[in-house]
Structure formats: C-alpha cells, structure tokens
Amino acid sequence: LCQDSLQFVILGTGEERYENFFRYFAWKYPSRVSAQIYYSEEASHRIYAGSDALLLPSLFEPCGLSQMISMRYGTLPVVRETGGLADSVKPYNQFTGEGTGFSFANQNADEMADIILYAADVYKNDKKSWANLVKQAMAEDFSWHNAANEYLDVYHLLHPEIIRYVRRRDW
After folding, report:
1. pTM for the full predicted model
2. How far apart (Å, rounded) are the C-alpha atoms in residues 169 and 132?
3. Maximum C-alpha span of the chain
4. 25-83 pLDDT per residue, tens
5. How far apart, in whole angstroms, are the C-alpha atoms of residue 137 and residue 168?
6. 100, 87, 90: which is closest to 132 by C-alpha?
7. How far lies 52's CA from each of 66, 79, 97, 131, 163, in Å?
C-alpha cells in the first residue's frame, strides 16, 4: 500500500498535547516519523530541500511563506484551503494537469488523510504528473515585482489615468 511508504518529519513547537502526540509517534514508528520539537532555520531549509511534499493543515493563515518556500524548492504543498494558502496554492487538476500542490477544504482528519493519500498515490503511480506539478510549482512568481504589476492591473481597471502617470515615473 502507498500509505505504508509514507514518512513524516515534524519540525517546530506548539501546544504541548500536539508536541507529545508527535513525540509518541516518533517513538512508536522511528523509521516513519521524526519529531524535532524545536525550531531551526537551517533544519527547515534541509527539510524543504529533502521532502517531496509539505503538509500545512492550518486553521487560518493570513499569508504564509512556508508554501511559497516549499514550491521554490520543488516540494509540493498540501494545504487546507484558507487565507494565503488558498490564494497561493493551485490544487492539482488530474484532467488538465494544472496545479502547484494539493488542498482540502475542511478542518477534519478524514479530508486531510484523503488528500495526503491522494498526493502519495500521484507521487507513486503518476511520476510524469508529479514532475509536471513540481515544475509548475517552481515556476510560480511570488516576487514583489509580480505583485506590484498585479496591483497596477487592478488600479488600471479602477482609474486608467493613475496607471499612465505611475508607469511614466521611474520608481
């Protein structure tokens, strides 16, 4: 089964009950779960670089940088559709091949488990689609230059004269 080959790395701190939950599973399944209950910028970048997917089941996320960083590394985000996660991760569409990750709508374990297993199935059984998703994710442009141009497009819809003035200026 695909789920038998899944491995998880947890890095960070949080509520004690969750920390203990992950410590327990790391103890019980040492070859499949690694719980690093601390924060390290260096370790986080090694995890991004060495992982195939990054799980972000956030209850809320006003912006979020982790999914953007993971895409830059070629690590596909698996997110709950909220805030900046929903704005920045395009869910995989198996019919068109479009997407930059995987997502689920509701904050419940069943939906999260289903999308994790679906992503793992794509990874294991559809290597071509997975590789295409990685390329699309790595090609995403979250730069300020791109964001500024998107804002200019919105302003242009609102008031074309402002845009003509702004584009003439050398900022």
Report:
1. 0.84
2. 39
3. 65
4. 999 999 999 999 999 999 999 999 999 999 999 988 878 899 999 999 999 999 999 99
5. 33
6. 100
7. 14, 14, 18, 11, 42
